[in-house]
Amino acid sequence: MEHARHVFRAALVVLVLLAGVGITRGFLVPPTYGLHGPYRWANVAEQMNARTPAHRGPAACGTCHEDELRRRAAGAHRAVSCEICHGPLLAHVAADGRTTAPAVDRSPALCARCHRKVLGRPAAFPQVVLEEHVSGPLDAGACLACHDPHAPTP
Fold it and tell me: What is the pTM of this model?
């Protein structure tokens, strides 16, 4: 029992160190760490909230373009968001209310994303082989020369 005091002191030092590590960890490690794996779960929400959304959807466009949104809702392109052709709303409307003309993608490649002939698409869906459909060069605006995307007709 001659070394009992030393063992007791060593055990006390170890316990104090473990308690210190536990308390320090409680202050340094976020509460959501390890909740769903080895990362900080709340960081996803924090990162999303830190960014200004660039795309807002057709409802946001409708606040200024009500007639166009109503016409689009009844048309064949009702499932296509305005921002597919006109770019992100954030580039068109600034936070202070200033607007700039949206950059419209007039390339045939944009139209071809949906209307290029693909065997797996329904037969009723308008599809074309661009090289056969257009007699001239496939320049920017080639599709828009004949087709209005806001009121599409075959």
Answer: 0.55
> Which residue carries 């599809």 as its tokens?
127
Residue spans of the domains in the chain: they are: 4-50, 54-104, 106-154
User: Burial letters for 101-132: b for 16+ Cβ neighbours within 10 Å, e otherwise?
Assistant: ebeeebbbebbbeebeeeeeeeeeeebbebee
Smallest CA-to-CA distance from 56 within 13, 23, 86, 21 is with: 86
CA distance 25 to 144: 62
The predicted-structure confidence for 77-120, as pLDDT tens digits, reads as follows 878 888 888 888 777 776 666 777 777 888 888 888 888 888 88
In angstroms, the CA 78 to CA 72 distance is 5
Give the C-alpha distances (Å, rounded to integers) separating 98 from 4, 13, 95, 102: 79, 65, 7, 12
